[in-house]
Amino acid sequence: MRVATLSVVLIGSVIVACFVDRPTEELACTSNSQCTRFDPLRVCAGGYCVEPDCPDDCTACDEAAKTCQVDCTSTDDCLGQITCPTGWDCTINCVGDGACNDIECQTGAKCTIACTGDNACSDIRCSSACQCDLDCVGTACEAMACPVIGNGANQVRCTADGTTATECDSTVDSRCARC
């Protein structure tokens, strides 16, 4: 009975070992430049070329610095909502007619958004962001919700001219860049 149990355990161990991922020397690296030959693009982390764990909407990112690049360059390129997660610094480029849909810059996120082309961006929601800068060319943006700091007489709208009708701008008041 013990021999049979031992045999089952050994066979099970051999089968499991066949499915365990182990880094190979082919993936060994000391810099990101050694990882450019892989598709999808990998980064050097812990001495091996690994796929970065970027937020879903990023076309490129730096996990350590928490920076995210989103590039949408043609009609309907980025359908659905683009989200800059909490604590990330996102640069979002929507270039072309209808390139992006809704964009949300979450609480504690920092966003720089450029929309170029007819209806390049739909609803842009930065009201919870710790910093948001928006550049809409012509009829590129449909609706914008920018951060508002303070209340009453101390209230500041973080927009180019302090109204709800203009683009988000973190340079109008030092409190608009509170990350």
How many separate helices? 1
What is the N-to-C order of secondary-structure elements (H for helix, E for strand)?
HEEEEEEEEEEEEE
Number of strands: 13
Identify the overall geometry. Answer: globular
Gyration radius, in Å: 23 Å
Into which percent range does the helicity of residues fall?
under 10%
Instruction: Report how far apart the termini are.
Output: 66 Å
**Residue fraction in strands:** 25-35%
Q: For the largest sheet, list the strands in their spatial order.
A: 3-4-6-8-10
What class, by secondary structure content?
mainly beta
Average pLDDT, all residues:
85
Please summarize the sheet with the most strands. 5 strands, mixed
Low-pLDDT stretches: 12-17
Short note summarizing the structure:
The protein is mainly beta.
Protein architecture, described:
The chain is mainly beta and about 180 residues long. It is built from 1 helix and 13 strands, in the order αβββββββββββββ. The chain has one helix spanning about 1-20; strands at about 45, 50, 60, 65-70, 80-85, 90-95, 105, 110-115, 120-125, 130-135, 140-145, 150, 155. It has a 5-stranded mixed sheet with strand order 3-4-6-8-10, with no helix packed on it. A 4-stranded parallel sheet has the order 5-7-9-11, with no helix packed on it. A two-stranded antiparallel sheet has the order 1-2. A hairpin with a 2-residue loop joins β1 and β2. The longest helix is centred in the N-terminal third of the chain and has 17 residues, at about 1-20. The chain is globular and about 60 Å long. The N and C termini lie far apart (about 65 Å). About 30% of the residues are buried. Residues about 10-15 have low confidence and may be disordered.
